[in-house]
Amino acid sequence: MRRLPTLWRREVKGAFLSPVAWSLIAIFLLVSGYFFYSLLYLYGMESFEKMRLAEAVGPQELTVGHYALRPLVNNLGVVLLMLLPLVTMRLFSEEKRSGSIEMLFTWPLTDLEVTLGKYLAAVTVYAAMLLPTLLFPLFLSFYGPTPWGHVGAAWLGLFLMGGAFIALGLFVSSLTENQVV
């Protein structure tokens, strides 16, 4: 297991030297930013309407955490379902296609180290995608109370769900030589 960091560094370096990882991060941040903006706009419209009607009905509590962050996390889960296969599609299939898989398996690495190295590299790329989205609840904390426990649980859930998607994508990538499959 002491050779695992070498393979991890090789895979992360390869991922970030290609434009694919940067493009996926940019697309993910644009889509998540759009969802955040849209949900925040809907929250503003709904809170204005509730404030206007509060005189007749009575005060009602409308929190930004429940109205904007919960749907955002749900939407991000669907976006990740679409984007994470693009992170994992080249892990083993590119090695098979180029013929470098034989060289990889002749290194003094076990199969577990190869698999874990590639998996941890894909999780590192995914963490680089997910980490900037933590600015959304941080931004909201300037304007009101933010349920940090809920935010932490939601983002941990997103991270673990992405890890499961990456594991499945890694498995599928090991079955074929074609990246598109």
Protein architecture, described:
The protein is an all-alpha fold. It has helices at 4-17, 19-57, 64-88, 93-98, 101-106, 111-130, 135-141, 148-175. The radius of gyration is 21 Å and the shape is elongated.
So what's the overall shape?
Answer: elongated
Number of helices: 8
Order of helices and strands: HHHHHHHH
> Spans of 5+ residues with little confidence (pLDDT < 50)?
none
Radius of gyration: 21 Å
Write down how many β-strands occur, each being a DSSP E stretch of 2 or more residues.
Answer: 0
- Report mean pLDDT, rounded to a whole number: 84
Topology:
Elements lengths: L3 H14 L1 H39 L6 H25 L4 H6 L2 H6 L4 H20 L4 H7 L6 H28 L6
Write a brief structural summary:
The protein has 181 residues and is mostly helical.
